[in-house]
Specification:
The complex is a heterodimer of chains A (46) and B (280). Chain A is mainly beta. Chain A has one helix and two strands; from the N terminus they run ββα. In chain A, strands 1-2 form a two-stranded antiparallel sheet. In chain B, strand 2 and strand 3 form a beta hairpin. Classes of the chains: A mainly beta (46), B alpha/beta (280). Chains A and B meet through strand 1, strand 2 and helix 1 of A and helix 7, helix 10 and strand 8 of B. Strand 2 of chain A pairs antiparallel with strand 8 of chain B.
Chain lengths: 46, 280
């Protein structure tokens, strides 16, 4: 994402429930276009 | 020209001339409902394929209709942007829904849609076992969808692009909250499923089309949000896909991606990587 010119603003991993042995996690990434800094500095992302 | 919805006199005249014919007006009315092929329109309007193709060509040249290729098929829909799009929608909007011509065409359209949905359902049934097997491998969909929704909360969400849309679930999920949604997938079978799903949900402002995730052929800065959900693990070159996604993302917009990844089990990787994105 960084190589694509984006700013990573969130990375979250959804882990399987404890009793779900063998299941895999799902990862979530959220990125934004850094041009936000020029177009609208008031806009914020968590 | 300051307003993109305005047309030069010649263009406006051409648009009106193209629409001012009974069959072409019926075509516009039908395409305002959903995307259709020449074959669908032939069945609904009971006219020959060359005649329908000629009408579509004239509407397309006038900027009222757009054409998308999907495998061996060409799909048509009302133009999404520009003065021609506004003219088409304005004209269709003046048609009386209770008019006998409109009613009859809509009844035939419903038959075409039902046949489409049945074909999509047959494909779904044929592959349901495999999808269920994959779904059982990872965290429940409901938790993943809640996390995506939470990540995008409070953010501008007028237009959404869903890369690798699959069954169209992300468009269905966010459809009620957006003005425009587009799903891209390589597989005509999946697009058929997604199309049936969006029609069932009544999401006319959402559409799907066949496309290459590495070369979207969409304008730069054209979507508020780009989703790449459960797709990255299928790709040969995820970085290129992310670069292309970044290109079409508008500034002041977040982009979210989610992807299954391995956790303490060596089997998940192979289970979630059954095919590359590109054919061949």
């Amino acid at each position: 994402m960084t190589a694509a010119g984006l700013d990573l603003v969130l990375q979250e991993t959804l882990a399987p429930e404890a009793e779900s042995e063998g299941k895999i996690a799902v990862s979530l990434w959220l990125a934004r276009d850094p041009r936000i800094a020029f177009a609208g500095p008031a806009r914020e992302v968590a | 020209m300051s307003n993109p919805g305005h047309l030069a006199f010649g263009e406006f005249h051409s648009a009106l001339r193209a629409a001012a014919e009974a069959t072409r007006l019926r075509v516009l009315m039908l395409l305002a409902e959903t995307e259709l092929t020449v074959s669908d329109l032939t069945e609904i309007l009971r006219q020959s394929q060359p005649r329908i193709s000629r009408h579509l060509r004239l509407l397309s040249e006038a900027g009222l209709v757009e054409r998308y290729r999907e495998g061996a098929w060409a799909f048509f829909r009302l133009a999404e942007r520009g003065g021609g799009a506004e003219v088409a929608r304005a004209l269709v909007g003046r048609l009386d829904p209770a008019d006998p011509v409109v009613t009859r065409d809509r009844e035939r359209l419903a038959e075409v849609r039902a046949a489409r949905a049945a074909a999509a359902q047959a494909y779904f049934r044929a592959h349901a076992a495999e999808w269920d097997r994959i779904r059982r491998l990872h965290v429940a969909d409901v938790a993943v969808e809640a996390a995506i929704r939470s990540a995008l909360a409070e953010r501008p969400l007028r237009s959404l692009l869903d890369l690798g849309t699959g069954t169209g679930r992300m468009l269905e999920l966010f459809g009620p909250e957006i003005d425009r949604g587009v799903g891209i997938d390589l597989s005509p079978d999946m697009l058929r499923l997604a199309r049936a799903r969006l029609e069932r949900a009544g999401l006319k402002h959402c559409s799907v089309r066949q496309g290459d995730i590495y070369d979207l052929r969409l304008p730069r800065d054209s979507f508020d949000v780009v989703l790449v959900h459960q797709v990255l693990h299928y790709l040969d070159d995820g970085a290129s896909a992310i670069r292309e996604a970044a290109r079409v993302l508008r500034p002041i917009s977040p982009r979210t991606t989610s992807s299954s990844c391995a956790r303490s089990t060596p089997t998940c990787g192979s289970g979630l990587r059954p095919r590359p994105w590109r054919n061949g």
